């Protein structure tokens, strides 16, 4: 318990610092949007390329990880649709509940993987991201199309996945690794410095994006979305890992990712595709805050079985 808390404490502390300095108006509201672009388009892709090009990714059982992720996403989708059938809410609100129940915060996941499992954990996390990000984007677009009766643009969504800088970085990093080319020596030191900025700045940005005011209108849908994401998902992944995954490290990182709060980028998609943006903001904030309590306890309890 103490080891996990020690590893996760800096992650959550930076989220709180980010929220605190945003509330104080420092360094100014104009800072955060360009900072998020810098993180998303440069720092995190550099981190993924740097770590993947040097890591032993051959030790990651790609097919088994893909099966584990596929089972998790399919089960989560069916569960959320079943809840909507049994206790229906407005369709546009359900799309936000779905995103909240399915998506994961990449920044928190990478930071927690590095803190708990080091570079080996980061390599596994990068492979998980390469599989989950495109799958989740396509699933979310499909749900928007079905529940809002709007053309969510499947082809444009596919193009967005292909152009996603995190996916491109994973592909480049794995190519450099498997091809034996590696990252040129002159670039390694530069990439190392940029990578060192990615995780702390990314966590500060996540904290800065939290909206406590959105929680005032939070209802039951926010709670059951959080319950599915923060409690049931780790339980499903635990069962999947016990059945499919032999590597303890891979199972641990998969379990960590299944316990993550939803992604802050879900708010943007909710606004663009006709979802319930205020509810999405409430879900993002509620899950991020709740995960500070649930992640340590879920990991402590569930990791005992792996």
TrEMBL record:
Gene3D superfamilies: 1.20.1530.20. InterPro entries: Mem_transp_PIN-like, Na+/solute_symporter_sf. The keyword Transcription regulation does not apply. Keywords: Cell membrane, Membrane, Transmembrane, Transmembrane helix, Transport. GO terms for biological process: transmembrane transport. It is found in: Cell membrane. Belongs to the auxin efflux carrier (TC 2.A.69) family. This is AEC family transporter.
């Amino acid at each position: 318990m103490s080891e996990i808390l020690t590893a996760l404490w800096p992650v959550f502390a930076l989220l709180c610092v980010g929220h605190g300095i945003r509330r104080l108006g420092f360094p100014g509201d104009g800072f955060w949007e360009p900072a998020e672009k810098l993180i998303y388009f440069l720092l995190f892709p550099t981190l993924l390329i740097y770590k993947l090009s040097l890591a032993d990714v051959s030790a990651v059982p790609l097919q088994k990880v893909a099966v584990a992720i596929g089972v998790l996403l399919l089960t989560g989708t069916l569960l959320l649709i079943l809840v909507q059938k049994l206790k229906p809410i407005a369709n546009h609100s359900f799309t936000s509940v779905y995103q909240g129940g399915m998506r994961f915060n990449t920044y928190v996941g990478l930071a927690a993987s590095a803190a708990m499992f080091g570079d080996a954990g980061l390599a596994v996390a990068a492979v998980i991201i390469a599989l989950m990000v495109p799958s989740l984007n396509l699933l979310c677009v499909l749900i928007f199309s079905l529940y809002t009766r709007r053309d969510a643009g499947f082809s444009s969504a596919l193009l967005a996945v292909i152009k996603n800088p995190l996916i491109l970085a994973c592909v480049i990093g794995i190519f450099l690794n498997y091809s034996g080319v590696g990252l040129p020596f002159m670039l390694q030191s530069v990439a190392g410095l940029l990578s060192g900025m990615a995780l702390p700045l990314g966590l500060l940005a996540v904290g800065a994006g939290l909206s406590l005011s959105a929680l005032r209108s939070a209802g039951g849908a926010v709670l059951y979305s959080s319950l599915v994401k923060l409690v049931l998902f780790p339980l499903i992944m635990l069962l999947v890992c016990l059945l499919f995954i032999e590597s303890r490290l891979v199972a641990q990182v998969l379990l960590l990712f299944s316990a993550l709060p939803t992604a802050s980028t879900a708010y943007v998609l909710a606004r663009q595709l006709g979802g319930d943006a205020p509810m999405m903001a409430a879900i993002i904030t509620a899950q991020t805050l709740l995960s500070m309590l649930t992640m340590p306890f879920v990991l402590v309890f569930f990791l005992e079985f792996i």
